[in-house]
Amino acid sequence: MTLPEVSGSEARGPLAGGPRDLTPREFEVFRELVHARSGITLGPEKRPMLYARLARRLRALGLETFTDYQRFLEERDATGEELRRLINAVTTNKTDFFREAHHFRYLAEQWVSALRARAARTGLRSARIWSAACSSGEEAYTIAVTLLEALGGAAGWDVKIIATDLDTEVLAQAQAAVYQAARVEPVPAPLLSRYFLRGRGANAGLVKLRPEVQSLITFRQLNFMEEPWPIRGPLDVIFCRNALIYFDRPTQRRILEGFLARLAPDGVLFLGHSESIHGLVEGLRHVGNTIYRRVATSRPAAG
Fold first, then answer.
1. Is 156 exposed, middle or buried (0-12, 13-18, 19+ CB in 10 A)?
2. What is the spatial distance between Cα 87 and Cα 46, in angstroms, rounded to a whole number?
3. What is the 3-state composition of the chain as percent helix, strand, coil, each rounded to the nearest 5?
4. Predicted structure pTM score
5. Is-catalytic flag, 220?
6. What is the pLDDT of residues 195-249, one digit of tens each?
7. Domains within the chain, CATH numbers bracketed
8. Which residue among 47, 57, 99, 165 is the active-site one?
9. Does 116 qualify as catalytic in the annotation?
10. What is the largest CA-CA distance in the chain?
11. Catalytic residue among 31, 37, 47, 53
């Protein structure tokens, strides 16, 4: 999950046929609502972006002002469906296959080696991985492909990947496992031929993950602000990349503490390229570029 920089079209001012302005008071109302419901912090520079995203919802509902929209949410949204659409509108997603490729090299080369050593020592041939803020699924599928390749297939292994996101619309895309061909350009050609199916006829220009890849992953909606999280530990690996930067520090700390509680001893946490645990939590040791390993303690993982 990411919030992009304001695009040129969003920064140019009122949209044709849209409300004239998002006043400072209205901005504060919706900024506070977004923070309370999702934990996402919107600074003043995000006002043009918020205007553009919410103006689309106003047009869809036939409303004239943002105050009308606020009133709609308070008085006419008993099911919470429009509130869900509001949060989806704000949490625009950006992701790619094999994004920050060094993480997947570490997973394939170092982590899988440790996994094999554990299996030889204990007989335990399982892996539990969480792709948090998974967006439209590229990260989770990259994890699955990486493990299938590194393990020589999943035969004899119990591999489960849980992938979550706040945005229900991108989760539906992820579940479908279908992408435009241009989206898979970062995937190495040998992996593309082994783990993806190319569409033909009416589906030309599309690709779909093979069933053996999809079967490793369960997608579900999760809001970091709604506790307790429906994710059980202990987990061997957690990916949460390029999401923490959109939360304030108390929320970052709470999320990281939740990850730490669910990581198995020696479990690994992958963060985004501009994210850090410095000054937020203890119990994680830096082992690579935005890669952290849990320091083994006697504290049990969260269930």
1. exposed
2. 15
3. 45, 20, 35
4. 0.84
5. no
6. 999 999 999 999 999 999 999 999 999 999 999 999 999 999 999 998 998 899 9
7. 8-90 (1.10.155.10), 101-294 (3.40.50.150)
8. 165
9. no
10. 66
11. 53
